[in-house]
Amino acid sequence: MSLNSDACDHDLLRLSLDDRLSEQQEDALARHLTECTNCQCELARLAGSDADWSKVSLALKYEAESACGAGNATRATTPRTERDEDDADDSSADFAVDFLEPSSAPQTLGRLADIDILEVIGRGGMGVVLKGYQAELKRLVAVKVLAPHLAVSAAARKRFAREAQAAAAILHPNVMPILTVHSGGKLPYLVMPFLACESLEQRIARDGPLPLVDLLRIGMQSAQGLAAAHAQGIVHRDVKPANILLDLGVDRVMLTDFGLARAIDDASITRTGLIAGTPQYMSPEQARGEPLDARSDLFSLGSVLYAMAAGRPPFRAETSYGILRRITDSDPRPVREINEEIPTWLAAIIDKMLAKAPADRLESAQRVAAILEQCLAHVQQPTLAPLPDFCRARRPPRWLTVPLVICCATVALVAAFLLWPGSIDRPAAPASDSAASDPSPAGSVPTADNSTPRMPVGSATEWDAVADQLDQLDRDGRVFETRNQREWDRLPIPLPPETNSDSDLISRPHLENDP
Amino acid sequence: MRQPQTHPSLIVRLKDRRNEPAWAEFLCAYEPFLWQLVRRQGTPERHVADITQQLLMAVARSLDGWRDDGQAASFRRWLSRVARNVVIKFMTRERRQVTGQGGTDFLEQLEGQPDLAESERLQGLYEHELIVWAAHEVRGDFRETSWQAFWATQIEGKGVAEVAAELGISPGSIYMSRSRILARIREKIDDAM
Questions:
Q1: Annotated active-site positions of A, please?
Q2: What is this structure's pTM?
Q3: Long-range contacts of A476-483 (CB under 8 A, 24+ apart)
Q4: Do the interacting molecules here have an ipTM over 0.90?
Q5: Do A63 and B128 touch (CB under 8 A)?
Q6: Potential cystine with B58: which of A70, A171, A273, A352 (Cβ 3.0-4.6 Å)?
Q7: B5: nearest CA in chain A?
């Protein structure tokens, strides 16, 4: 028992663990604990068993010693530093270097068949990329070696080879060619040409949102590459900025890693399971684990366009689960809210590609490529090239727009006039008036009535109806798009040859608007 | 059964819909732990997100195997067990990879069951990772002097009176704060488990 006058209080100890004591209680308990060994033990027991105490202490002690030997409280429980990461990078490359054969050539890491491996140039989710030189062909190549954990069974290796061979059959300027596929050895690998390039991911990370012309060009070429693959029945399954390479020097875009996501999925299904891909660019059907077709790639490409426009992917959350939930359940923030320089027609294209239901998206990569190509031509040569029909169809014909806007504005004005309490009926309501002049009328309600918003009883549904109408109009792009369209209309767009009087109004609306 | 061509996913339609909140709750508590663990296993920074997600998907893929054993929190306990197994397998693989073993030896070892001593060692490693993570997480909830007092007395083994004098606080408050810290670490681990 304690010599302290304070009695031992079990409940107080329990409360102190949860930090639920008042300051006075806390001071009193601290004084008591200093003296009372019983309570010291009891409190420690309440916090955890002897085993808990020693496990935690040992773990942290071991951690502190192995972290840097300084025994420093701060270091032991902070995440690893950059130095540690570099070490990790080196060790994770070991497997790829280990499986090389020794090479007689100086300055090389080793040899792989007829390729002298010069250096490790990258590490992707699926393995390591090496830079090599084929002496006989006198060319530099990039060698992609599948990580050992993905090459676990013969079936997985065969699958990898099959997918890679299928991808190798896609011959298109916007698809990274595959020179060789090798699946016989310990680890399967692909040989590709070595190019000085950066990925779209690196570009966005460095520069943020891309200029409109670049965005359209990269989008168009990616869509063309996808179209070539889709024509052969190959779905990419992992379209994302990291897999879109920008050839430095020339304005060429190349898609890489076709179908490999699928091969990796299969490889992983046979064991603990590892599948490729950060989820940010997944389609809703992919996130739900449903069967995919080419339209899944179009959603992902839509996300890529969004990322180029906004400088960040459309669906973000703290956790990957959160990202997947957003992809399946919610619409991204309108891209023009993030980057107002994006024209409405491009936002409309992106929205269409990001439709949750595959059937609501643009029907093919070819169509996407064609639309983006026309848009690109329009942006580069506004006077010669009109926007594609798809973009113009989003806008109502001008002969309809003007009356609609007038009509809508009238409805809004009339509604506002009728519903605004101060406008018509208020002067005729003496009770309110007297209330306004008398700050404290005894036993009357009008003070509340006089405060904003002053909405007459029974008008809520009318307000709702007007709000709905406006909302609907807005959603159809008829109210706010007109304002923006005017800017576009200032560009003199030549009349298409088969023009009639209606389309004349479409292309030259400024005649109406200008005084 | 899953068809080979379908993608497994974190958004699972559980057989027993009652368990969906538990699954979401598990992800919220467990993903941050996995994140740090994957990083600490030597994964290059840019692959941490990928691998974390892959591990969670591996857990998700096993969800249909759950059978209610009638005991309290049956699903949650089962989930913890599955997650622990997935993570332990991952640690085995990573370690082998780091030691540079590749090819057939590597594959054979991966297929075979680790022996008992090895399995215990891995369990210990898993526990170690959980403790270090939890301590890191809760550290910010405490005053710096509280943490220093906990560290000096519990990890460095200094006497309470000595540390109290050094830090200018009462010995009683050291007993109090170090118990709080241990309780919070345990609580954090329980949340993730």
A1: 238
A2: 0.53
A3: A476/A396, A477/A344, A477/A348, A477/A394, A477/A395, A478/A396, A478/A401, A478/A404, A478/A405, A478/A408, A479/A405, A479/A408, A481/A344, A481/A394, A481/A395, A482/A401, A482/A405
A4: no
A5: yes
A6: A273
A7: A291
